[in-house]
Amino acid sequence: MELSVFWTDFARDKLDDIFEHHKLQSENVNVARKLVTSIVDHTIGLEKQPNMGQQEELLSDRPQKFRYLVFKSYKIIYWINEDKKRIDIVHVFDARQDPVKMRKTK
Q1: Which end of the chain is less enclosed by CB atoms within 10 A, N or C?
Q2: What's the gap between Cα 64 and its chain centre?
Q3: Fold of the 4-105 domain
Q4: What pLDDT does 26 receive?
Q5: Using an 8 Å Cβ cutoff, are 66 and 53 in contact?
Q6: What pLDDT, in 10s, does the model give residues 59-79?
């Protein structure tokens, strides 16, 4: 069974933050847009292979079984929402940050 991919509001806000940060840092909208598009594109294939990401040990105390994909320095954190037959992408976390921050936001 193929699942759909759903980006939560929180994950979309993180993509917006990444875009704004890189737009300011590079002073180039196209660079920022390409990065965000590449992050989203990296999730292609989750519909057919939802378990392809590794389990996120830092969130193992949660009822959902969070998994993640890595793109550059970003962890794309998701879980398989079987009730809604979809993959919920819940966070795009910059892995250069303190990992404890991830626990506080999700």
Answers
A1: N
A2: 15
A3: YaeB-like fold (3.30.2310)
A4: 82
A5: no
A6: 999 999 999 999 999 999 999
| Residue-level length of the chain | 106
CA distance 62 to 45: 25
Contact 24, 41 (CB under 8 A): no
Q: Over the stretch 36-55, which tens digit does the pLDDT of each residue have?
A: 999 999 999 999 999 999 99
Instruction: Quote the CA–CA distance of 31 and 35 in Å, as a whole number.
Output: 6
Contacts (Cβ under 8 Å, ≥6 apart) of 77: 56, 59, 66, 67, 68, 89, 90, 91, 92, 93, 102, 106
What's the token pair of residue 77? 């954190």
Output the pTM of the full model. 0.90
